[in-house]
Specification:
Structural class of chain B: mainly alpha
Helix content of chain B: over 70%
Shape of chain B: globular
CATH topology of the largest domain in chain A: Rossmann fold
Number of helices of chain A: 11
Number of strands of chain A: 12
CATH architecture of the largest domain in chain A: 3-Layer(aba) Sandwich
Shape of chain A: globular
CATH class of the largest domain in chain A: Alpha Beta
Number of domains of chain A: 2
Largest sheet of chain A: 6 strands, mixed
Radius of gyration of chain A: 19 Å
Order of helices and strands of chain A: HEEEHEEHEHHHHEHEHEEHHEE
CATH superfamily of chain B: ABC transporter involved in vitamin B12 uptake, BtuC
Order of helices and strands of chain B: HHHHHHHHHHHHHH
Strand order of the largest sheet of chain A: 6-7-8-3-9-10
Distance between the termini of chain A: 16 Å
Largest interface: A-B, 49 and 43 residues
CATH architecture of chain B: Orthogonal Bundle
Oligomer: heterodimer
Helix content of chain A: 25-40%
Structural class of chain A: alpha/beta
Largest sheet of chain B: none
Distance between the termini of chain B: 37 Å
CATH class of chain B: Mainly Alpha
Number of strands of chain B: 0
Chain lengths: 286, 352
């Protein structure tokens, strides 16, 4: 996985790579459910994630994508290795200080009680303001701005319990953005989104990275992964994992072997698209 | 009196839909709290004036030795139960949870009825202090059992939302409650005829002779002081243990503290006024429907509204068929159930 030389965006990547390393994993290994008795998800993962980069985690169901994101967030027990954010081991962070640096958005949310979209989006906003943040939430222009960017302004006063899956997904993204942390760890942020909102998600996350932020997100759609990612982590579901620039990891052969379906990669307007074939015969790119 | 409160509630829910268009939750939640405070003051005034001897200012002696303490005891008990209910709902992520899912009230019932039975058997005339002490002891024993069984589970953080600890809490609490119900049934079976009436009244929730209001107020103040400063974290915990942990919430410690506060408030309320049902379940629920959702507002609002509700209902309970007194728990359900069903059916539309 070394021939990334012919990539048109190489210059851009080099500029972004100059950003400080915000997230590092060394020899990270995880077990299913975080329990030592369970099967190994993967072993020996090394990551160096710099500011401005977008890392996308792909892999089959149950491969450990969510576990990896939770482990990077510090809420999943690691079986071996270490995770550092801003150069500091996760265990050495004061939990509330860490919340300033990274936001984690889980795949599933529980909405046990009625709450408006605005209330839900602003849950983790202005954490140091305590109950005062709850009282004058209405007048917070930052909340309104994020709701507007996610096309949620019309829904701001709706009850989250009445939303469709895709609408709830956008609220989850709003909640994560309003935590005001530069490093976003997003577990399947594109699930339930329609085509237009998938594009909106990619644009927003690219803008977040351009503004000096960092994104690590798990995705199932390989085309979307290509458009968002600067780098990719591919977990194969049988104990293997590889990480690197998207051009090196999102390769048809490798993907076909991982997912067990035929995958063709084609070039459309400078972007790599992935066509899934019916046969199990893998085909190489170009 | 309860009619006055009912009108206030109705007025607020009529306001809600057109508020939502240009000026949504902030105003409605502030308005709901103002309403609750006004209702509380009104309820207390009416509660002090209403008596089985007629409506109006009674002799100073009756006022200071019976009516004022009774209103204070009722308010404290209602406030503590509603606060505890709000805490348990947040902790278990379940809108159907109430103070009694803890099993603490069951323990209090066993203690109170046990004290009555022991008193009768030994021929000792028990003051209401004796029964309250028995209830407090029972509540403490049930709490100790609950915490003993759950201490380690409370700290467990499920990686996905849904949460291990919350489900375990519900199950263990319900089991303790069921065990206590069996013991209560046993005591009722063994008790002699003369004792039965007093026991049944206690179980229904009865403010008759409840003159010791200090303990429940202290418990209420302690519980509020312990949970309110970090109330916002309870809203985070309700969305998921792991997510709350990423925001810096010490999940295990927070859950234990909140559970302890809820157990304290419930135990003190039940020891003071018996097992008044309905308040703990419905008051937080009704407030949420009025737009009071965030825990920093919901917790104090629940306490105020719960106290007002019990005082108002009790004022009716002891005047409606005077000189007889209906147990406050019976009337609370009789008034609350239709009002609550009406509120459920009038579910507001989606805001677009």
């Amino acid at each position: 996985m070394s021939d990334a030389s012919a990539v048109p965006e190489a210059d851009v990547e080099r500029r972004l790579d100059a950003g400080a390393v915000v997230l590092e994993a060394s020899a990270l290994s995880l077990r299913a459910g975080g329990s030592a008795r369970n099967r190994l998800l993967f072993d020996g993962l090394d990551l160096r994630v710099a500011a401005g980069q977008r890392w996308v985690v792909v892999g089959p169901n149950g491969a450990g994508k969510s576990s990896l994101l939770a482990a990077l967030a510090g809420v999943f027990p690691i079986a071996g290795g270490s995770v550092r954010i801003d150069g500091v081991e996760l265990a050495d962070w004061a939990p509330s200080a860490l919340a300033e640096r990274r936001a984690w958005s889980p795949q599933f949310w529980s909405d046990p009680f009625p709450a408006t979209v605005r209330e839900t989006a602003a849950l983790a906003h202005r954490r140091d303001a305590g109950w005062r943040a709850v009282l004058d939430r209405r007048s917070d222009p930052e909340v309104e701005r994020v709701l507007g960017r996610l096309l949620l302004a019309d829904l701001a006063d709706s009850d989250v319990q009445t939303l469709s899956g895709g609408e709830r997904q956008r609220v989850a993204l709003a909640t994560a953005l309003l935590q005001d942390a530069p490093l976003l760890l997003l577990d399947e942020p594109a699930s339930h989104l329609d085509l237009a909102h998938e594009r909106l998600l990619v644009e927003l996350l690219l803008a977040h990275a351009e503004g000096g932020g960092t994104v690590v997100a798990s995705l199932h759609d390989l085309d979307l992964a290509w458009d968002l990612a600067s780098h990719v982590v591919l977990i194969d579901g049988s104990g293997g994992v590889c990480a690197g620039a998207r051009e090196e990891v999102l390769v048809a052969d490798r993907l076909a072997a991982t997912f067990g379906v035929a995958i063709h990669a084609i070039e459309v307007q400078g972007a790599r698209r992935f066509v899934v074939g019916a046969s199990r015969t893998p085909h190489g790119v170009r | 009196m309860s009619a006055a409160r009912g009108n206030a509630v109705a007025a607020a829910s009529e306001d809600a839909p057109d508020e939502a268009s240009d000026d949504p939750r902030q105003m409605t939640s502030v308005r709901a709290i103002v309403l609750a405070v006004v209702a509380a003051l009104l309820a207390c005034v009416v509660g002090v004036l209403a008596g089985s001897s007629g409506f109006g200012v009674a002799s100073p002696d009756i006022m200071t030795s019976i009516r004022v303490p009774r209103v204070l005891a009722g308010f404290g008990a209602g406030a503590a139960l509603a606060l505890s209910g709000a805490l348990m709902q947040l902790l278990t992520r379940n809108a159907l949870a109430d103070p009694y899912v803890l099993g603490v009230a069951g323990g209090a019932a066993v203690g109170a009825l046990g004290a009555m039975m022991v008193g009768a058997a030994t021929g000792v005339q028990l003051s209401e202090w004796g029964v309250a002490a028995g209830a407090a002891l029972g509540a403490a024993a049930a709490s100790a059992l609950l915490f003993g069984l759950l201490w380690r589970r409370l700290a467990s953080t499920a990686t996905s939302s849904g949460g291990d600890g919350a489900a375990a809490l519900l199950l263990v609490g319900v089991m303790i409650g069921s065990g206590c119900s069996a013991l209560v049934a046993l005591i009722l079976t063994l008790a002699d005829e003369g004792q039965l009436r007093g026991m049944v009244f206690w179980l229904l929730g009865d403010l008759n002779g409840a003159t010791h209001w200090e303990i429940v107020w202290i418990a209420l103040a302690v519980a509020l002081a312990v949970v309110w400063p970090t109330a916002r974290e309870l809203d985070w915990l309700a969305r998921g243990d792991a997510w709350a942990a990423t925001l810096g919430v010490p999940v295990g410690r927070r859950r234990r503290v909140v559970l302890l506060a809820a157990a304290l408030a419930t135990g003190a309320a039940v020891a003071t006024a018996g097992a008044i049902g309905f308040v703990g379940l419905v008051v937080p629920h009704a407030l949420r429907r009025l737009g009071v959702r965030a825990a920093p507002l919901l917790l104090p609002a629940s306490a105020i509204a719960g106290g007002a509700f019990v005082v108002a209902v009790d004022a009716v309970a002891r005047t409606i068929v005077a000189p007889l007194q209906v147990p406050v728990g019976v009337l609370a359900a009789a008034i609350g159930v239709p009002a609550f069903i009406a509120m459920l059916l009038a579910r507001p539309e989606r805001g677009r």
